[in-house]
Structure formats: C-alpha cells, structure tokens
Specification:
By secondary structure, the protein is of the alpha+beta class. It has one domain. Strands 1-2-3-4 form a four-stranded antiparallel sheet, covered by helices on one side. A hairpin with a 6-residue loop joins strand 2 and strand 3. It starts with 14 loop residues before the first strand and ends with a helix.
C-alpha cells in the first residue's frame, strides 16, 4: 500500500488559539488570518461556544514590504495578546464590582 504524503508549510501562521480560565469560566481566544486576498486578522473571544467579543484589523498596508513576514507575525501576536489582556481586565473588573455590591 503506497500512500503519498503532501506536507504544506508556511512561514506565516494562520492562527493562534489560547484557553483562558478566569473566575470559573473557560474562555477561548482565537486569532486567524483571513488571507492575503482578504488581508484581515480577526480575533474572537468565545465563552461556552458563543462569541462574546470580536476584533478585526486590516494589514494591507504591510503587504509587499520586505519585512512582511516579521511584521505580520508581530501584528497577529500583538492582537492576540491584547485580546487576552482586555479579557482579563474585564473579568477582574466584573469580579471586583460584584464583590462590592
């Protein structure tokens, strides 16, 4: 039995995914590239399968630049990390508010 294996690799990551456990809730933060024909990075935050937050950033301004791969990776990672930090701040603020009421 002969099986052909095709391995496709790219310098560009198509997505990032992080589970964040906060105040008893498990949140999923997903960041994905919509592709060079639709140059947007989209980050969505899910709770129990429902989108609770979404952010979309255009990256056409860096297409074709000599350092595209580095700038793209940086932009994607920064957007993903920012979404996690915003989520943490919001949950901490809600927890503090709930404790004081």
């Amino acid at each position: 039995m002969n099986k052909d294996v095709i391995k496709i690799t790219s310098k560009i990551s198509k997505g990032l995914s992080t589970k964040v456990n906060l105040s008893g809730g498990i949140y999923l933060v997903d960041t994905e590239d919509l592709g060079m024909k639709n140059p947007f990075i989209v980050t969505r935050v899910y709770l129990k399968g429902e989108i609770i937050s979404s952010h979309k950033v255009d990256y056409k301004h860096i297409l074709g630049t000599p350092d595209f791969h580095e700038r793209f990776s940086e932009l994607m990672q920064r957007q993903h990390n920012k979404a996690i930090e915003v989520l943490k701040r919001e949950i901490v603020a809600r927890t503090i508010l709930a404790e004081n009421t």
